[in-house]
Amino acid sequence: MTRVTVAATRTPTSPAPRSAVPAPLVARVVDAALLPGRLAVAATQATLAVGRLAAPDGPIRRPGGYADLVQRVIGRGGYVEQLADVLLVEGGPLRLAEVLGDLVAPERPLARMLQRDGVVDRLLAEDGPLTRLISRDGNLERLLAAEGPVDRLLRPDGALERLLSEGGALDRLIEEEGLLDRLLRTGGTLDRLTEPDGVLDQLLRPGGLADRMLTDDGFVEKLLADGGTLDQLVALGDTLEDIKPRLSELAALVPALSEAAETLHRSVGPLGDLAGRLPLRRRGERAAATVPESVDPAAAVEASR
Q1: Alpha-helical runs (H) found in 155-228
Q2: What mean pLDDT, rounded, does the chain reach?
Q3: pLDDT of 289 higher than 60
Q4: If DSSP codes are grouped into helix, strand and coil, which group holds residue 90?
Q5: CA–CA dist 190, 182 (Å, integer)
Q6: In the prediction, which pLDDT does 9 show?
Q7: What integer pLDDT is reported at residue 229 of this predicted model?
């Protein structure tokens, strides 16, 4: 009763009494005391679970269980061994990878094609050949358009059908005694071309026609040199282009010239007839007719006067 009175007489500002032992500390002490039991229970549960897993009918040892799956992967004849056999076989994937590595080596053509600004880059560029080929109104679209080259080639009675029809060009080419047969027969054209000392042999031998054409200062070099035959032919084309307008003007003058010649002929014709009617000319003709062959016609004309 006295403690209650003292507690009532305390001022409001006095702090509340503190517990002698904090609750978290008590919980920790209890957990520490129960830890061995919990460990024992967990170990027992784990042992029982392992026993169930390792049982003949458990998930590990039962047919089709985890043990069988592991054996399929790493056991004899398993997936790993099969994969090793496939990889190590001659001509297998490793050989293929080696060949691909050789193909993309920096000095090989494929690597140069695939390098930056190489053939593939230029082909697939925004303004490259492939883009121009497949663009709208490009070559491919015009090729496949209605009434385009492919359409005309494949339509009934088109070029392809005529080529493959019975008795068509292909039949005549491969028929017996046809062009291909005569070309490929023993002793035929191809044999004569490729036989020793044949046309190709003589053409390609050292000092032959091809050698003489391709030597320094040969025919090809003269043809392609600056100011050579090809340049002269091009210049001749330009000259002909310059002459063309003059030829056109001359062609326009030819009818007028022909008409003038015809007019001149019509004008001279009556004068010739008039000269034939003159008496002096007739007497001269009669005198010339009576003069002997040994007499000078000019002297006979003078005598007739």
Answers
A1: 159-164, 169-174, 179-184, 189-194, 199-204, 209-214, 219-224
A2: 75
A3: no
A4: coil
A5: 9
A6: 42
A7: 80
HEC assignment per residue over 240-301? HHHHHHHHHHHHHHHHHHHHHHHHHHHHHHHHHHHHHHCHHHHHHHHHHHHCCCCCCHHHHH
Q: Is the pLDDT of residue 207 over 60?
A: yes
SS3 107: coil
- Per-residue tokens: 295: 């007499």
pLDDT exceeds cutoff 60 at 305: no
Q: How many CB atoms lie within 10 A of CB 203?
A: 13
Structure tokens at 246: 């003059």
Give CA angle at 21 (19, 24), nearest 5°.
110
Q: Are 99 and 90 in contact (CB under 8 A)?
A: no
Q: 114 in helix, strand or coil?
A: helix
What is the percent of the chain where pLDDT is above 70?
80
- The Cα 123–Cα 296 span in angstroms is 95
Residue with tokens 């930056």: 116
Q: How far is CA 200 from CA 157, 192, 216, 301, in A?
A: 41, 9, 22, 81
Query: Taking the model in full, what pTM does it have?
Result: 0.29
DSSP state of 143: H
Residue by residue, DSSP assigns 4-18 as HHHHHTS-TTSPPPP
| CB of 186 closer than 8 Å to CB of 192 | no
Those residues whose C-beta lies under 8 Å from the C-beta of residue 170, and which sit 6 or more positions away, are: 163, 164
Would you say 101 and 95 are in contact if contact means Cβ atoms under 8 Å apart?
no
Q: In a 3-state reduction of DSSP, which class is residue 159?
A: helix
Tokens representing 126? 């925004």
